[in-house]
Amino acid sequence: MSYSNLIAMEVPTYNHPDVVEDVLSNCAEHYKRCGIEIYYYDSSDNDDTKKVIERFNAEGYDNLIHVQVETGAPPHIKRDMIYTGVALKKHYRYVWMSKDRAWVEESALKEILDAADENYDAIIIATRPGDKTYIDSAEELYQRWAPISTSMNVAILNTESVLKDYTAPIPNRPMCDFGHFYALFDGLSRIDNPRIARIEMGKRICMSNLSESTWTNDAFIVWKDSWIDINDALPDIYNPYKDYVIKKVASLPWILAERNRLLQLHELGVLTPETLSHALSRWERISDIPKGVVMDIANDNYDIRYDLTQIQDRNELTKLLVEMAGYIREGKMSKEQIPIDDVANAVKIELLKDEDKPRRNIRVGAVDSILEDFSEREYDSEQVAKIFQQLLGYVI
Q: What is the pLDDT of residues 260-282, one digit of tens each?
C-alpha cells in the first residue's frame, strides 16, 4: 500500500509496550486505512515495544515503523529527532508528535487530513468547543489557546514553514521542558500572517487507561520552573501576554490553582517543609493563592475553614476583616491593638440591614457575645484570627 506524505505521526515512548499495544489495537486499522505512517521513537531498556510493533507489522500493518533511540534518552533528545526528521523514510508536509497513550477516532483523522490538504502552517486539535476554526495570528493563538497547546499531541506542524528553521529551546531540561510548545510558537512567530486551523475533536481524542501523566511528583519543577522558563524564552512578540498565559495555564484546577490540589500534593509528599522554599520561588507568577496558605499546607497547619483568603466578593468591611485576620496570624497585630469595639459596631451596622428581624436579632446578639467573651478571656493569635472568622461569617 502507498502511504500519504501529508502527515507523519511520531511517537516518543519508553518502556510502554502494553500501552503501545493497547493503542494500536484501537487505531492501527483506521490509521492504515487513512494512509498514516506512525514512527515510534523508542528509548526503552528492552525490546518489548519493538516486538509489539513487529507483531503488528507481521499482521500487515506496514505503516508502523520502529526507530531505536539510545536507551534512556531524555524526552528532549527524542523531540529534537522528531522535529528535525531523523529516521523518516521520506519528506512529509506535517509532523504530528503524539503521546504514546493517545489516538484519535477515524472521523477525526479524516478531518485532520482534510485540513492538511489546505496547507495550513499548523493544525491545532481542540478538545473543547471554540468560536473560531481559523486563526491568522500567533499572538491570538498564544493568548487564547495556550492551555490546549501544552499537550504534546494537539499541534500538527508544517515542516516547510513552522519547522523550517527549528531550533531547540534553551534550557533543555531532563524531563518535560514544553519543547513542543516552544516549537509551535517560535515557529509561528517567524511567519507573517500564519494560517492556523483549529479542529474540535471533543471525545474523539482517546487515551489508553494503562498509562497516565507522570508529572504529579514533579509538579513544581514542571509548572514553576519549566513552564515559566519556556515562556520567557519565546520571542518578544509574545511579551505582552506572557505573564497572563503563565498564570492562566499553571492556575488550572488540576495543576496548581486550587487549595485542594495543594493539599493533595502535600499528602503525596510533593509539597513539604523540605520542598517549600523551591515551591515559593517565583510563586506569584503561577498562582494567586497567597504564599501563607502554601506555607501552612506544607507545614501541616492548614485548615480550610479558617482560610479567609478564599473570600473573593469583598465589600469594604469584609476586606478589612480579612486583612486584619492576616495581620494577626502573621504576628503584625496583637490583641491589644485590635479596635474590637469599632469592628463589632461595623459588623452590627451591616447586620442591621437585614430585613429578617428574628435572624437580625440573633446575629446581633451573637456578635455581642463574641465581644463580651473577647474582652474577658485571653486568646492567642490563632484564636483571635478564628474570632474574626466568626465575624466574617455574619457579614458575607
A: 899 999 999 999 999 988 889 89
3-state helix, strand, coil in the chain (%, to 5): 55, 10, 35
Number of domains in the chain: 3
The distance of Cα 83 from the centroid of its chain, to the nearest Å, equals 23
Same domain, 246 and 277: yes
My answer on whether 189 and 48 are in the same domain is: yes
Grid cell of 126 as nine digits: 481542540
Query: Residue 187: which CATH number?
Result: 3.90.550.10
Strand 155-158 vs strand 122-126: parallel, antiparallel, or unpaired? Answer: antiparallel
Is 173:225 a contact under the CB 8 Å cutoff?
yes
| pTM of the predicted model over 0.85 | no
CA dist 67 to 5, 54, 70, 286, Å?
18, 12, 10, 37
Do residues 146 and 238 make contact, with C-beta atoms less than 8 angstroms apart? no
Question: How does the average pLDDT of the chain come out, rounded?
Answer: 87
Same domain as 257, residue 155: no
